[in-house]
């Protein structure tokens, strides 16, 4: 609130912060637990108090309330074992649970391992980095920073891997949101820039960035993943 009381040329025009309580409770107790319900009410009360305090300043402030993911409750008791076709001495293993990426030490091992995994795969899908589903935006053509594994294993909900035999949280995320609706994120927005009482269909989270730049009157020239579709749908026309 002290920031908002600064003169216009000194106060920040974009303020971001994170409330972790719901995520923490969801992981520990599961997304449908009473503990999560209590933390949702707590965060809701916090946002109410924030909104009330901002209104008292008389400033025309826009709020965008989002999450980076939803949360599901997978089967943590019957996890998938390390596939027999995977020789772990030949690959670096990145990730676990919902996304396992295999990085080959020798490229010659990629194709035979992939074929072996495809033959034995049950309750998970096997992909080469070149043939991941386009809607995941994670194949070779999307990999500008060379971070995607050579072979990718994606379990079917509610299954998951536990290759490192770790204690698993009751609540998890990382499944494909196109097929597991529980992991959809949330989006609430209000303020003078937004159409009131408007409900919209799900959209890619990356569209939030161009929405914010439009509200702030900023332009960008770099390549981004988001589009202006969300802004066109929710913002009042000037």
Q: Topology of this protein?
A:
Blueprint: H1 21-29, H2 34-57, E1 63-66, E2 91-96, E3 99-104, H3 110-120, E4 124-128, E5 151-155, E6 187-190, H4 208-216, H5 229-234
Antiparallel strand pairs: 1-6, 2-3, 3-5, 4-5
Range of helix content:
10-25%
Question: Nearest-angstrom radius of gyration?
Answer: 22 Å
In total, the number of strands is 6
CATH topological fold name of the domain at 89-155: Gyrase A, domain 2
Class by SSE composition: alpha+beta
Mean pLDDT: 94
Poorly predicted tracts of residues? none
Question: Helix count?
Answer: 5
> Do you know the CATH architecture of the domain at 89-155?
2-Layer Sandwich
Tell me the β content. 5-15%
Distance between the termini: 28 Å
What does the largest sheet look like?
4 strands, antiparallel
CATH class type of the domain at 89-155: Alpha Beta
* Widest sheet, order of strands: 2-3-5-4
